[in-house]
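go over this record:
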Amino acid sequence: MTDIKELASRAGRSASKDGTSVQSTTERDARIILLGTKGGPRIVSEGRKNPSTLLLLGGVPYVVDCGYGTSMQLQRAGVPPNMLRYIFITHHHSDHNIDLGPLIYNAWAAGLKTPVEAYGPPPIKEIAKAFLDYAAYDVDIRVKDEGRVDLRELVVAHEFDRPGLVMQNDQVRVTATRVRHPPIHHSYAFRFDTREGSVVVSGDTTYSPELIELAMGADVLVHEALYLPGLQQLLQRVPNAATMREHQLASHTATEDVGRVAVAAGVKTLVLSHFVPGDDPSITDDEWTEGIRKHFSGRIIVGKDLMVIPVRSQRLGRGMPSHARCRGEATLLP
């Protein structure tokens, strides 16, 4: 069985004994880890996993969205599940929230003793309660039989329904703005302002002036991407969704518009994630960036699952170091 120290060492880190932080070889520098980069709820046996983005700030994980498989991807990234502290949900499509409950449960199963705070639009409180009700039989048994802390005492759901400040501590200030993802009204993007730089995660959106305002001057913008020439093949793989084409065009951002957003916001680095279609390996990195390059001349990173992106180097304009190395499962920094 793989233990915490081995998991942490896979990402060039060592876990503290109580699992409260991950010590980086670069003094706990802030970094982004793309846990899952495929858009949409459909799962595939190979390739990209469903959407989730991790920020490690001072060794503390901040998880944005919980697509199917987030718990396993967190572990593959070298982050022990019982370190979980903060979760942010952009909106309540299943590819963004289906693992919210299981992620918290798996952290508890791995030894979680401290509260997990989950932030998101309505009905996140109802969703959290529904999962805890579903898990109550198992939790009750394990509390009595194994002496565990009651999971229900560790889950704190915070609901917001308008743009503005979401949370703030000594590591980060998190703000949100509503973006355009019909038919869902409460769909948000998040901005994380840290001492080492600023990171914006778009969530799901079509071209959004509100997102541009939120992302102004950001060091990193993690943005969804829709590749229009690949849409027809995607529709053929999902035969039970008669109006999916209309949804994709009305609710997601074509690559050319991603470039327009990035240049209007003046971001330093653009990271592509939540690819639609995200399960077509024939689409090359150059094809993902071709439309963007018509408008944005800055640094573009075509995201891959378990890619590690240091925040400070984006702020300093260095991007991913040339000595970054790939070890199969992940792109890891020395």
Summary: The chain has a mean pLDDT of 87. The radius of gyration is 19 Å.
